[in-house]
Amino acid sequence: MSDDLKELNVITQARYQKAQAAMQSIQAEENKLRGLLNDLTEQEKNGRDALTGDTAMRITGGDLAWNSWIGRNRKILNHQLANVMVRKEMAYKDLQKHFGKANVMEKLLEHEVQTRRQMRAVALVDSIMEGKLSCGM
User: Fold this and answer.
1) Biggest CA-to-CA distance, the chain
2) The whole model's pTM is what?
3) Residue 127's pLDDT is what?
4) How many CA atoms within 13 Å lie on the side-chain side of 129?
5) Torsion sign (Cα): 61, 63, 67, 70
6) Which of 71, 109, 120, 135 is least enclosed, having the fewest CB within 10 Å?
7) Would you tell me the crossing angle of helices 62-134 and 2-52 to the nearest 10 degrees?
8) Are residues 60 and 51 in contact, defined by beta-carbon separation less than 8 angstroms?
9) Is 2 buried (19+), middle (13-18) or exposed (0-12) by CB count in 10 A?
């Protein structure tokens, strides 16, 4: 049974590590999108400051085009971020499941090691007792 548990542990750990890698990948994607949204907010602020003094841009409608561009890009980035957050939630649940399995597997292996140690100790005590009895003590 020990070899079966060890093989199962290898599989369980591999699945857990795969779930961790998936979560890290999604987290990196989320961080990238949040960074892009922060950059867009900074661009919006700088553009607003620049457009306030530029009457030519307001007269030609450049300020409206700029605001429209900002709004469109913000909408796209927020939509992408929402999709990533949904994937992150699913990956988190998957990670929890695989963590639980890996944790149980570790406890099973520890229990097996302790059981084997106890069995060896009992066998040692038995052999000592048999030796004493056979010597006539």
Assistant:
1) 115
2) 0.73
3) 84
4) 6
5) positive
6) 135
7) 160
8) no
9) exposed
Give me the residue label for tokens 């961080």: 31
Please report how many Cα atoms fall inside a 13 Å half-sphere around the Cα of residue 80, on the Cβ side.
16
The label of the residue with tokens 């020990």 reads 2
Rounded Cα distance, 70 and 45, in Å: 10
Give the pLDDT of residue 1: 53
Name the 3-class secondary structure at 137: coil
Residue 137's pLDDT is what? 54
| Cβ partners under 8 Å of residue 24, min gap 6 | none
Length of the chain: 137
pLDDT (0 to 100) of residue 46: 87
